[in-house]
Predict the structure.
Amino acid sequence: MTLMKLQLQNLILIDVDLRGRVKSGLKTFSILEFREPAKLIEIVKKRFISLGGVIFEGYSVSSICTYENAAVLLLAEGKILSSHLIIDAMGNFSPVVKQIRSGRKPDGVCLVVGSCARGFKDNSTSDVIYSSSSVKKVGDSEVQLFWEAFPAGSGPLDRTTYMFTYIDPQAGSPKLEELLERYWDLMPEYQGVTLDNLEIQRVIYGIFPTYRDSPLPAAFNRILQFGDASGIQSPVSFGGFGSLTRHLGRLSTGVYEAVRGDFVDSYSLSLLNPYMPNLSASWLFQRAMSAKQQSDVSPDFINELLYVNFQCMQKLGDPVLRPFLQDVIKFGPLAKTLGLVMLNKPQIIPSIFKQVGIPVLVDWSGHFFMLGYYTLLSTFADPVIRSLLNAFPPRMKYEWNRYLEAWKYGSGLDYKL
Ligand SMILES: Cc1cc2nc3c(=O)[nH]c(=O)nc-3n(C[C@H](O)[C@H](O)[C@H](O)COP(=O)(O)OP(=O)(O)OC[C@H]3O[C@@H](n4cnc5c(N)ncnc54)[C@H](O)[C@@H]3O)c2cc1C
Protein backbone atom coordinates (compact mmCIF):
# COMPACT_ATOMS: atom_id res chain seq x y z
CA MET A 1 0.00 0.00 0.00
CA THR A 2 2.84 2.39 0.83
CA LEU A 3 4.41 1.57 -2.50
CA MET A 4 1.19 2.33 -4.29
CA LYS A 5 0.85 5.60 -2.43
CA LEU A 6 4.32 6.76 -3.44
CA GLN A 7 3.74 5.74 -7.00
CA LEU A 8 0.43 7.59 -7.16
CA GLN A 9 2.01 10.79 -5.94
CA ASN A 10 4.81 10.52 -8.48
CA LEU A 11 2.41 9.83 -11.32
CA ILE A 12 0.35 12.84 -10.53
CA LEU A 13 3.39 15.04 -10.36
CA ILE A 14 4.49 13.80 -13.78
CA ASP A 15 1.34 15.05 -15.46
CA VAL A 16 0.89 18.24 -13.54
CA ASP A 17 2.72 20.84 -15.52
CA LEU A 18 3.74 24.29 -14.35
CA ARG A 19 3.22 26.00 -17.63
CA GLY A 20 -0.07 27.90 -17.52
CA ARG A 21 0.41 31.61 -17.78
CA VAL A 22 -2.13 33.53 -15.82
CA LYS A 23 -3.11 37.08 -16.55
CA SER A 24 -5.28 38.35 -13.72
CA GLY A 25 -5.39 41.85 -15.19
CA LEU A 26 -2.62 42.83 -12.78
CA LYS A 27 0.32 40.56 -13.39
CA THR A 28 1.24 37.33 -15.12
CA PHE A 29 1.66 34.17 -13.02
CA SER A 30 2.27 30.49 -13.48
CA ILE A 31 -0.37 28.03 -12.33
CA LEU A 32 -0.89 24.31 -12.21
CA GLU A 33 -2.65 23.08 -15.26
CA PHE A 34 -3.61 19.51 -15.92
CA ARG A 35 -2.73 17.91 -19.24
CA GLU A 36 -4.16 14.71 -20.65
CA PRO A 37 -6.12 13.40 -17.66
CA ALA A 38 -7.08 10.25 -19.63
CA LYS A 39 -3.39 9.35 -19.84
CA LEU A 40 -2.95 9.84 -16.12
CA ILE A 41 -5.97 7.68 -15.31
CA GLU A 42 -4.72 4.95 -17.64
CA ILE A 43 -1.31 4.87 -15.92
CA VAL A 44 -2.85 4.80 -12.44
CA LYS A 45 -5.30 2.09 -13.54
CA LYS A 46 -2.51 -0.13 -14.89
CA ARG A 47 -0.52 0.30 -11.70
CA PHE A 48 -3.57 -0.47 -9.53
CA ILE A 49 -4.33 -3.66 -11.47
CA SER A 50 -0.67 -4.74 -11.42
CA LEU A 51 -0.80 -4.58 -7.61
CA GLY A 52 -3.83 -6.90 -7.53
CA GLY A 53 -6.55 -4.23 -7.64
CA VAL A 54 -9.85 -5.05 -9.35
CA ILE A 55 -11.93 -2.39 -11.12
CA PHE A 56 -15.69 -2.73 -11.64
CA GLU A 57 -16.17 -0.16 -14.35
CA GLY A 58 -19.75 0.99 -15.01
CA TYR A 59 -21.08 -0.58 -11.81
CA SER A 60 -23.19 1.39 -9.42
CA VAL A 61 -23.37 1.22 -5.61
CA SER A 62 -26.91 0.77 -4.37
CA SER A 63 -26.38 0.22 -0.62
CA ILE A 64 -23.73 -0.26 2.06
CA CYS A 65 -24.19 -2.14 5.34
CA THR A 66 -21.60 -1.84 8.07
CA TYR A 67 -20.94 -4.64 10.56
CA GLU A 68 -18.51 -5.11 13.42
CA ASN A 69 -15.89 -6.80 11.22
CA ALA A 70 -16.70 -5.63 7.66
CA ALA A 71 -18.62 -3.26 5.44
CA VAL A 72 -20.71 -4.89 2.73
CA LEU A 73 -21.38 -3.12 -0.51
CA LEU A 74 -24.32 -4.07 -2.71
CA LEU A 75 -24.00 -3.12 -6.37
CA ALA A 76 -27.10 -2.32 -8.43
CA GLU A 77 -25.96 -5.03 -10.87
CA GLY A 78 -26.36 -7.62 -8.10
CA LYS A 79 -22.74 -8.13 -7.03
CA ILE A 80 -21.88 -8.12 -3.31
CA LEU A 81 -18.45 -6.95 -2.13
CA SER A 82 -17.15 -6.95 1.39
CA SER A 83 -14.40 -4.69 2.66
CA HIS A 84 -12.52 -3.63 5.78
CA LEU A 85 -12.87 0.02 4.83
CA ILE A 86 -14.88 1.74 2.09
CA ILE A 87 -13.54 4.95 0.59
CA ASP A 88 -16.50 6.97 -0.65
CA ALA A 89 -15.14 8.90 -3.63
CA MET A 90 -18.58 9.35 -5.23
CA GLY A 91 -18.13 13.09 -5.59
CA ASN A 92 -20.35 16.01 -4.64
CA PHE A 93 -23.50 14.01 -5.16
CA SER A 94 -22.45 10.90 -3.24
CA PRO A 95 -25.59 9.16 -1.91
CA VAL A 96 -23.72 8.49 1.37
CA VAL A 97 -23.01 12.20 1.78
CA LYS A 98 -26.64 13.01 0.98
CA GLN A 99 -27.65 10.68 3.80
CA ILE A 100 -25.13 12.16 6.25
CA ARG A 101 -26.22 15.69 5.42
CA SER A 102 -29.89 14.60 5.57
CA GLY A 103 -30.52 16.09 2.13
CA ARG A 104 -29.82 19.59 3.53
CA LYS A 105 -29.59 22.44 1.03
CA PRO A 106 -25.99 23.56 0.43
CA ASP A 107 -24.92 26.87 2.02
CA GLY A 108 -23.56 28.07 -1.31
CA VAL A 109 -23.26 26.87 -4.88
CA CYS A 110 -20.78 27.66 -7.61
CA LEU A 111 -22.31 27.26 -11.09
CA VAL A 112 -19.96 26.84 -14.03
CA VAL A 113 -20.63 26.77 -17.76
CA GLY A 114 -18.14 26.82 -20.59
CA SER A 115 -16.66 25.14 -23.58
CA CYS A 116 -13.50 23.93 -25.19
CA ALA A 117 -13.25 25.28 -28.72
CA ARG A 118 -10.75 25.35 -31.58
CA GLY A 119 -9.79 28.50 -33.43
CA PHE A 120 -8.26 30.85 -30.83
CA LYS A 121 -5.33 32.56 -32.55
CA ASP A 122 -4.28 34.30 -29.34
CA ASN A 123 -3.86 31.28 -27.08
CA SER A 124 -0.75 31.84 -24.98
CA THR A 125 -2.13 33.22 -21.70
CA SER A 126 -4.56 32.08 -19.02
CA ASP A 127 -6.92 33.82 -16.62
CA VAL A 128 -7.48 32.31 -13.18
CA ILE A 129 -10.28 34.74 -12.46
CA TYR A 130 -11.44 37.60 -14.65
CA SER A 131 -14.33 39.94 -14.17
CA SER A 132 -15.19 42.94 -16.28
CA SER A 133 -18.81 43.72 -15.52
CA SER A 134 -20.88 44.62 -12.49
CA VAL A 135 -23.78 42.49 -11.18
CA LYS A 136 -26.04 41.28 -14.03
CA LYS A 137 -29.52 39.77 -14.21
CA VAL A 138 -29.65 36.14 -15.41
CA GLY A 139 -33.14 34.60 -15.32
CA ASP A 140 -34.78 36.11 -12.24
CA SER A 141 -31.54 36.51 -10.29
CA GLU A 142 -28.80 39.05 -9.87
CA VAL A 143 -25.41 37.39 -10.39
CA GLN A 144 -21.79 38.44 -10.57
CA LEU A 145 -20.16 36.66 -13.50
CA PHE A 146 -16.52 35.56 -13.45
CA TRP A 147 -14.40 34.05 -16.19
CA GLU A 148 -11.52 31.65 -16.52
CA ALA A 149 -9.63 30.75 -19.70
CA PHE A 150 -6.61 28.63 -20.56
CA PRO A 151 -5.06 26.77 -23.51
CA ALA A 152 -6.32 23.19 -23.82
CA GLY A 153 -3.90 20.29 -24.34
CA SER A 154 -5.70 19.00 -27.47
CA GLY A 155 -4.22 21.49 -29.96
CA PRO A 156 -2.39 24.83 -30.25
CA LEU A 157 -5.59 26.74 -31.17
CA ASP A 158 -7.76 24.95 -28.60
CA ARG A 159 -8.88 26.92 -25.60
CA THR A 160 -11.13 26.25 -22.62
CA THR A 161 -13.24 29.13 -21.35
CA TYR A 162 -15.49 29.03 -18.30
CA MET A 163 -18.04 31.47 -16.98
CA PHE A 164 -18.94 30.98 -13.34
CA THR A 165 -20.89 32.53 -10.52
CA TYR A 166 -21.53 31.99 -6.82
CA ILE A 167 -25.09 31.83 -5.59
CA ASP A 168 -26.99 31.46 -2.38
CA PRO A 169 -29.25 28.57 -3.54
CA GLN A 170 -32.93 29.42 -3.48
CA ALA A 171 -35.99 29.28 -5.69
CA GLY A 172 -35.40 31.51 -8.72
CA SER A 173 -31.62 30.99 -8.76
CA PRO A 174 -30.28 30.96 -12.33
CA LYS A 175 -30.47 27.70 -14.26
CA LEU A 176 -27.39 26.28 -15.99
CA GLU A 177 -29.25 26.64 -19.28
CA GLU A 178 -29.79 30.37 -18.70
CA LEU A 179 -26.15 30.81 -17.78
CA LEU A 180 -25.07 28.94 -20.90
CA GLU A 181 -27.19 31.21 -23.09
CA ARG A 182 -25.49 34.21 -21.48
CA TYR A 183 -22.09 32.55 -21.92
CA TRP A 184 -22.52 32.34 -25.72
CA ASP A 185 -23.46 36.04 -25.78
CA LEU A 186 -20.54 37.22 -23.64
CA MET A 187 -17.65 34.84 -24.36
CA PRO A 188 -16.77 36.25 -27.82
CA GLU A 189 -16.37 39.73 -26.34
CA TYR A 190 -14.29 38.39 -23.44
CA GLN A 191 -11.91 36.54 -25.76
CA GLY A 192 -12.05 38.95 -28.74
CA VAL A 193 -13.35 36.24 -31.12
CA THR A 194 -16.52 35.53 -33.11
CA LEU A 195 -18.43 32.28 -32.59
CA ASP A 196 -18.50 31.66 -36.36
CA ASN A 197 -14.71 31.29 -36.35
CA LEU A 198 -14.72 28.69 -33.57
CA GLU A 199 -15.17 24.95 -33.81
CA ILE A 200 -16.78 23.85 -30.53
CA GLN A 201 -15.11 20.66 -29.25
CA ARG A 202 -17.26 20.21 -26.18
CA VAL A 203 -19.59 22.07 -23.85
CA ILE A 204 -18.77 21.91 -20.14
CA TYR A 205 -20.87 22.62 -17.08
CA GLY A 206 -20.78 21.91 -13.37
CA ILE A 207 -22.61 22.46 -10.12
CA PHE A 208 -20.40 22.74 -7.03
CA PRO A 209 -22.34 22.68 -3.78
CA THR A 210 -20.52 23.93 -0.67
CA TYR A 211 -21.32 23.45 2.99
CA ARG A 212 -19.93 25.61 5.77
CA ASP A 213 -19.37 22.58 7.99
CA SER A 214 -16.68 21.05 5.81
CA PRO A 215 -14.72 18.79 5.61
CA LEU A 216 -17.31 16.17 6.44
CA PRO A 217 -16.39 13.98 9.42
CA ALA A 218 -17.01 10.25 8.95
CA ALA A 219 -20.51 9.47 10.17
CA PHE A 220 -20.27 5.67 9.96
CA ASN A 221 -17.72 3.09 11.00
CA ARG A 222 -15.72 1.74 8.05
CA ILE A 223 -16.73 4.47 5.56
CA LEU A 224 -14.50 7.43 4.79
CA GLN A 225 -15.31 10.27 2.39
CA PHE A 226 -12.54 11.27 0.00
CA GLY A 227 -12.16 13.96 -2.71
CA ASP A 228 -15.21 16.08 -3.49
CA ALA A 229 -17.38 13.83 -1.30
CA SER A 230 -15.34 14.88 1.74
CA GLY A 231 -15.89 18.59 1.07
CA ILE A 232 -12.17 19.30 1.45
CA GLN A 233 -12.04 21.49 -1.67
CA SER A 234 -12.12 25.28 -1.48
CA PRO A 235 -15.59 26.81 -1.69
CA VAL A 236 -14.18 29.56 -3.89
CA SER A 237 -12.45 27.76 -6.73
CA PHE A 238 -13.67 24.62 -8.45
CA GLY A 239 -10.20 23.16 -7.96
CA GLY A 240 -11.32 19.95 -6.29
CA PHE A 241 -8.77 17.87 -8.16
CA GLY A 242 -5.95 20.13 -7.02
CA SER A 243 -7.19 19.86 -3.46
CA LEU A 244 -7.42 16.08 -3.77
CA THR A 245 -3.78 15.88 -4.86
CA ARG A 246 -2.71 18.29 -2.10
CA HIS A 247 -4.17 15.95 0.54
CA LEU A 248 -3.31 12.67 -1.20
CA GLY A 249 -0.05 12.04 0.67
CA ARG A 250 -1.60 12.86 4.05
CA LEU A 251 -4.68 10.73 3.39
CA SER A 252 -2.95 7.70 1.91
CA THR A 253 -0.59 7.53 4.93
CA GLY A 254 -3.54 8.03 7.28
CA VAL A 255 -5.69 5.38 5.59
CA TYR A 256 -2.75 2.96 5.67
CA GLU A 257 -2.27 3.53 9.42
CA ALA A 258 -6.04 3.26 10.06
CA VAL A 259 -6.31 -0.06 8.23
CA ARG A 260 -3.11 -1.49 9.72
CA GLY A 261 -4.14 -0.58 13.29
CA ASP A 262 -7.85 -1.36 12.73
CA PHE A 263 -8.79 2.21 13.64
CA VAL A 264 -11.83 2.21 11.36
CA ASP A 265 -14.47 3.44 13.80
CA SER A 266 -16.14 6.71 12.78
CA TYR A 267 -14.18 8.77 15.35
CA SER A 268 -10.80 7.53 14.13
CA LEU A 269 -11.79 8.02 10.49
CA SER A 270 -13.08 11.52 11.22
CA LEU A 271 -9.57 12.49 12.26
CA LEU A 272 -8.65 12.10 8.59
CA ASN A 273 -11.15 14.79 7.59
CA PRO A 274 -10.59 17.18 10.51
CA TYR A 275 -11.67 20.78 11.08
CA MET A 276 -9.40 23.06 9.04
CA PRO A 277 -9.66 26.74 9.94
CA ASN A 278 -8.18 27.84 6.61
CA LEU A 279 -10.94 26.02 4.72
CA SER A 280 -13.65 27.40 6.98
CA ALA A 281 -12.19 30.90 6.68
CA SER A 282 -12.41 30.76 2.87
CA TRP A 283 -16.16 30.43 3.08
CA LEU A 284 -16.35 34.19 3.73
CA PHE A 285 -14.77 34.80 0.32
CA GLN A 286 -17.52 32.86 -1.42
CA ARG A 287 -20.14 34.86 0.43
CA ALA A 288 -18.38 38.13 -0.45
CA MET A 289 -18.36 37.13 -4.14
CA SER A 290 -22.05 36.10 -4.32
CA ALA A 291 -24.31 38.88 -5.54
CA LYS A 292 -27.10 39.56 -3.06
CA GLN A 293 -30.68 39.83 -4.24
CA GLN A 294 -32.16 43.22 -3.15
CA SER A 295 -28.67 44.40 -2.35
CA ASP A 296 -27.82 47.52 -0.39
CA VAL A 297 -24.28 47.64 -1.79
CA SER A 298 -23.12 49.06 -5.11
CA PRO A 299 -23.35 46.68 -8.14
CA ASP A 300 -19.60 47.29 -8.55
CA PHE A 301 -18.77 46.23 -4.99
CA ILE A 302 -17.54 42.69 -5.83
CA ASN A 303 -15.24 43.94 -8.57
CA GLU A 304 -13.90 46.71 -6.33
CA LEU A 305 -13.27 44.24 -3.52
CA LEU A 306 -11.48 41.81 -5.84
CA TYR A 307 -9.45 44.61 -7.36
CA VAL A 308 -8.23 46.02 -4.06
CA ASN A 309 -7.51 42.52 -2.71
CA PHE A 310 -5.48 41.43 -5.71
CA GLN A 311 -3.71 44.77 -5.84
CA CYS A 312 -2.66 44.39 -2.18
CA MET A 313 -1.64 40.76 -2.66
CA GLN A 314 0.43 41.73 -5.68
CA LYS A 315 2.19 44.40 -3.62
CA LEU A 316 2.91 41.80 -0.94
CA GLY A 317 4.47 39.50 -3.53
CA ASP A 318 4.52 35.82 -4.40
CA PRO A 319 4.54 34.44 -0.82
CA VAL A 320 1.09 36.01 -0.40
CA LEU A 321 -0.37 35.74 -3.89
CA ARG A 322 0.67 32.25 -4.96
CA PRO A 323 -0.77 30.23 -2.06
CA PHE A 324 -4.03 32.17 -2.41
CA LEU A 325 -4.24 31.40 -6.13
CA GLN A 326 -3.63 27.74 -5.32
CA ASP A 327 -6.43 27.68 -2.72
CA VAL A 328 -4.20 27.64 0.35
CA ILE A 329 -5.12 30.21 2.97
CA LYS A 330 -2.37 30.99 5.50
CA PHE A 331 -2.51 33.20 8.58
CA GLY A 332 0.40 35.55 7.81
CA PRO A 333 -0.51 36.30 4.18
CA LEU A 334 -4.20 36.71 5.06
CA ALA A 335 -3.48 39.05 7.97
CA LYS A 336 -1.09 41.14 5.83
CA THR A 337 -3.62 41.38 2.96
CA LEU A 338 -6.46 42.40 5.27
CA GLY A 339 -4.24 45.00 6.95
CA LEU A 340 -3.18 46.48 3.62
CA VAL A 341 -6.76 46.53 2.28
CA MET A 342 -7.86 48.43 5.41
CA LEU A 343 -5.05 50.96 4.97
CA ASN A 344 -5.52 51.35 1.19
CA LYS A 345 -9.30 51.37 0.99
CA PRO A 346 -10.92 51.74 4.42
CA GLN A 347 -14.13 53.03 2.79
CA ILE A 348 -14.86 49.50 1.47
CA ILE A 349 -15.23 48.06 5.00
CA PRO A 350 -18.88 49.14 5.62
CA SER A 351 -19.86 47.53 2.30
CA ILE A 352 -18.15 44.27 3.34
CA PHE A 353 -20.28 44.26 6.50
CA LYS A 354 -23.43 44.88 4.44
CA GLN A 355 -22.54 42.28 1.82
CA VAL A 356 -21.69 39.33 4.07
CA GLY A 357 -23.64 40.24 7.21
CA ILE A 358 -22.55 40.40 10.86
CA PRO A 359 -23.20 36.68 11.73
CA VAL A 360 -20.92 35.47 8.89
CA LEU A 361 -18.21 37.94 9.94
CA VAL A 362 -18.40 36.88 13.60
CA ASP A 363 -18.18 33.21 12.56
CA TRP A 364 -15.25 34.04 10.27
CA SER A 365 -13.41 35.87 13.10
CA GLY A 366 -13.48 32.61 15.08
CA HIS A 367 -11.90 30.71 12.16
CA PHE A 368 -9.33 33.48 11.67
CA PHE A 369 -8.37 33.19 15.34
CA MET A 370 -8.14 29.39 15.01
CA LEU A 371 -5.99 29.83 11.90
CA GLY A 372 -3.48 31.79 14.00
CA TYR A 373 -3.72 29.23 16.80
CA TYR A 374 -3.13 26.27 14.44
CA THR A 375 -0.15 28.14 12.94
CA LEU A 376 1.35 28.53 16.43
CA LEU A 377 0.64 24.90 17.35
CA SER A 378 2.11 23.57 14.12
CA THR A 379 5.20 25.75 14.41
CA PHE A 380 6.01 25.30 18.09
CA ALA A 381 4.10 22.35 19.59
CA ASP A 382 4.48 19.99 16.60
CA PRO A 383 8.29 19.45 16.91
CA VAL A 384 7.97 18.68 20.63
CA ILE A 385 5.10 16.18 20.22
CA ARG A 386 6.63 14.63 17.11
CA SER A 387 9.77 13.73 19.07
CA LEU A 388 7.63 11.79 21.57
CA LEU A 389 5.36 9.99 19.05
CA ASN A 390 7.28 6.72 18.93
CA ALA A 391 6.79 6.24 22.67
CA PHE A 392 2.98 6.44 22.37
CA PRO A 393 0.77 3.32 22.24
CA PRO A 394 -0.49 2.61 18.64
CA ARG A 395 -3.94 4.22 18.87
CA MET A 396 -2.58 7.30 20.61
CA LYS A 397 0.18 7.55 18.01
CA TYR A 398 -2.38 7.28 15.19
CA GLU A 399 -4.51 10.02 16.76
CA TRP A 400 -1.60 12.39 17.43
CA ASN A 401 -0.32 11.95 13.90
CA ARG A 402 -3.74 13.12 12.72
CA TYR A 403 -3.79 16.12 15.10
CA LEU A 404 -0.36 17.21 13.87
CA GLU A 405 -1.54 16.94 10.26
CA ALA A 406 -4.69 18.91 11.04
CA TRP A 407 -2.59 21.74 12.51
CA LYS A 408 -0.26 21.71 9.51
CA TYR A 409 -2.84 21.48 6.72
CA GLY A 410 -5.41 23.55 8.59
CA SER A 411 -2.94 26.43 8.80
CA GLY A 412 -1.63 25.96 5.25
CA LEU A 413 1.89 25.20 6.50
CA ASP A 414 2.04 22.21 4.13
CA TYR A 415 2.30 24.74 1.27
CA LYS A 416 5.78 25.24 -0.14
CA LEU A 417 6.39 28.12 -2.52
C1 LIG B 1 -16.45 21.95 -15.39
C2 LIG B 1 -15.48 21.51 -14.33
C3 LIG B 1 -14.21 22.05 -14.29
C4 LIG B 1 -13.29 21.67 -13.32
N1 LIG B 1 -12.05 22.22 -13.32
C5 LIG B 1 -11.16 21.87 -12.38
C6 LIG B 1 -9.83 22.40 -12.39
O1 LIG B 1 -9.47 23.17 -13.26
N2 LIG B 1 -8.96 22.03 -11.41
C7 LIG B 1 -9.32 21.15 -10.43
O2 LIG B 1 -8.52 20.85 -9.57
N3 LIG B 1 -10.58 20.61 -10.40
C8 LIG B 1 -11.49 20.95 -11.35
N4 LIG B 1 -12.77 20.41 -11.33
C9 LIG B 1 -13.15 19.58 -10.18
C10 LIG B 1 -12.70 18.15 -10.33
O3 LIG B 1 -13.22 17.61 -11.51
C11 LIG B 1 -13.24 17.38 -9.12
O4 LIG B 1 -12.83 18.02 -7.95
C12 LIG B 1 -12.70 15.98 -9.10
O5 LIG B 1 -13.14 15.29 -10.24
C13 LIG B 1 -13.21 15.27 -7.85
O6 LIG B 1 -12.90 13.92 -7.92
P1 LIG B 1 -13.72 12.87 -7.09
O7 LIG B 1 -13.13 11.56 -7.43
O8 LIG B 1 -13.79 13.27 -5.67
O9 LIG B 1 -15.22 12.97 -7.63
P2 LIG B 1 -15.79 12.79 -9.09
O10 LIG B 1 -14.76 13.10 -10.12
O11 LIG B 1 -17.07 13.57 -9.11
O12 LIG B 1 -16.08 11.25 -9.20
C14 LIG B 1 -17.16 10.65 -8.54
C15 LIG B 1 -17.43 9.35 -9.23
O13 LIG B 1 -18.37 8.59 -8.46
C16 LIG B 1 -19.26 7.99 -9.34
N5 LIG B 1 -20.50 7.68 -8.61
C17 LIG B 1 -21.43 8.52 -8.10
N6 LIG B 1 -22.42 7.83 -7.52
C18 LIG B 1 -22.11 6.52 -7.66
C19 LIG B 1 -22.73 5.30 -7.27
N7 LIG B 1 -23.89 5.27 -6.61
N8 LIG B 1 -22.11 4.14 -7.58
C20 LIG B 1 -20.92 4.12 -8.23
N9 LIG B 1 -20.29 5.23 -8.63
C21 LIG B 1 -20.87 6.42 -8.35
C22 LIG B 1 -19.47 9.03 -10.44
O14 LIG B 1 -19.95 8.42 -11.60
C23 LIG B 1 -18.06 9.53 -10.62
O15 LIG B 1 -17.33 8.79 -11.54
C24 LIG B 1 -13.68 20.74 -12.33
C25 LIG B 1 -14.96 20.16 -12.37
C26 LIG B 1 -15.86 20.54 -13.36
C27 LIG B 1 -17.25 19.91 -13.39
